[in-house]
Amino acid sequence: MRALTCLVALSVGYLVSGTNGQIAEQRDPLPLQRPLGGLHEEQDSEFQYLTQQTRPFQVDGKKIPDVDFDVGESYAGLMPISSDPHESRKLFFWFFPTSDTLGKDEITIWLNGGPGCSSFEGLLQENGPFLWQPGTFKPVKNPWSWTNLTNMIWVEQPVGTGFSQGTPSATSEKDVAAQFLGFFKQFLDTFKMSNKKIYITGESYAGYYVPYIADAMFNARNTKYYDVQSTLIYDPVIADDTLHTQVPAVAFLDYWAPLFGLDSSFMADIHFRANRCGYTSYLKDFLVFPPLGTLPFPPDPRTPGCDVFGDIFTAATVANPCFNIYNIATMCPLLWDVLGFPGSLAYLPPGAKIYFNRKDVKQAIHAPLSVQWAECTDNPVFNPADTSPPSSVSVLPSVIERSKRTIISQGMLDMRIITNGTLLAIQNMTWHGMMGFQSEPKDGFFVPYHPRGPLGTMAGAGIMGVTHTERNLTWVTVQLAGHMYGLLSSQTSCSFNARTRNRVQTN
Ligand SMILES: *[C@@H]1O[C@H](CO)[C@@H](O)[C@H](O)[C@H]1NC(C)=O
Ligand SMILES: *[C@@H]1O[C@H](CO)[C@@H](O)[C@H](O)[C@H]1NC(C)=O
Ligand SMILES: *[C@@H]1O[C@H](CO)[C@@H](O)[C@H](O)[C@H]1NC(C)=O
Ligand SMILES: *[C@@H]1O[C@H](CO)[C@@H](O)[C@H](O)[C@H]1NC(C)=O
What we know:
By secondary structure, this protein is α/β, with parallel strands linked by helices. The chain has two domains: about 1-240 and about 390-505, Rossmann fold, CATH 3.40.50; about 245-360, no CATH class. It has 15 helices and 17 strands. The protein has helices at about 1-5, 120-125, 175-190, 205-220, 240-245, 245-255, 255-260, 265-275, 280-285, 310-320, 360-365, 395-400, 420-425, 485-490, 490-500, and strands at about 20-25, 60, 75-80, 90-95, 105-110, 130, 140, 150-155, 195-205, 225-235, 405-410, 430, 435, 445, 460-470, 475-480, 505. The protein has an eleven-stranded mixed sheet, with helices on both faces. Helix 6 (about 245-255) packs parallel to helix 10 (about 310-320). It is globular. Bound molecules: 2-acetamido-2-deoxy-beta-D-glucopyranose (NAG) (4 copies). One 2-acetamido-2-deoxy-beta-D-glucopyranose binds next to helix 6, helix 9 and helix 13.
């Protein structure tokens, strides 16, 4: 079942403090400012990063297929993961410089998950400068693009993902991080971008990638290339899958019961089994503030009758054939999607084409024409599997301790990575000398009100969820978001991003 193996990453960047506040994107947009020279001697007058070395990557912002506006300066292409001239492994990236003055000193990395899902899902459908979301007629400008705040790079990784080149050989997150750091150094050298502040963001399986890459960057002790400030992960896989799915499943079903619309005999049976299998008491006993102590192994879902998560998914799909595990508020019809993956099911109506598989699109961004691009590849990107422990029981606590800020966020409508499971994983982590959150998250997460804007890019505002910060870890839930935040509200996403870099004025 693809839905269960392929975690599409959705993005949005909240990175910060739990206080209600006005966010940076409300400032008047600054005019594009050019560096005064010196730094980029060979630089072309119109562009911040155009040099002889970067010219092969230059994308003509006025000629992106089907996009009828100028997306501005950007660069895309394949970059080797080492300086070896014979290096066969290359990651594909798309880099958009920001025109924001503060953001010029930074680079924010966005990573989708999977494993094996392309970060161009985030770019095109969540946080990029132009959006082409499922069901929509054509691309639109994203007023909430993260590029308004910061230099942004979307990277297809690890090797085996998207347009990236080379034979997948990673067996662990250490291998993934080594590939990424190698790539990133080549990128920074090519674009003469060393000494930037680094922010690492992503969603879903990037709950592995982001903390492990941050850990490797901290360990490298080289701030010229790897000066990590903060990380942000949405609906992240940070724990054993049973914790993310089975343990919180029936409480989640109860919470959203009218939306599931399942009959009373199913409801009675699933409660009986959740009780018998031990999920009910596990959630009740351990989801407490402060935490009770170390989380034991959760009940084994392979015990007969104990795959309650799978049974809810199956029943939901009968009642609502378009049931979308990534956003349970989705109803029929299935929407066409230029990336071919609008929900739990891959779907491309006859006559439609996958955007990044079009020859004109590939040519526009210097992508290899021979690659059959897929949002999430069917071929393994780990060989044979990812042997690393989840981040909450390995590198994440120390990444929190070494970062200025860490944001973990959850869309409440996501059933693939369920909010209560992620919260349980947080309650089982010890950072800055204490375990878990000492008090229950309950402050409102405020997204500034704003003019409605064009109908194609409307975004929610007000108290959108709950936020809580302790010891530099911020938790945020968004009530009406699914796994992929941007699909709900790129503005909320943008708000996250502003918070990541502490550009939130408290009022
Ligand atoms: C983002 O930048 C674009 C281009 O400069 C601008 O039109 C838009 O209003 C900005 N968005 C916000 C929220 O400030
Ligand atoms: C999370 O768990 C708590 C405690 O069991 C429960 O009251 C709440 O409804 C759950 N929330 C969701 C969204 O499942
Ligand atoms: C809780 O944390 C401990 C210590 O890191 C770890 O050994 C254990 O596996 C964790 N429990 C769960 C269910 O993740
Ligand atoms: C949180 O980070 C700041 C620096 O950003 C640091 O000064 C502070 O001591 C940290 N808080 C804790 C509890 O470690």
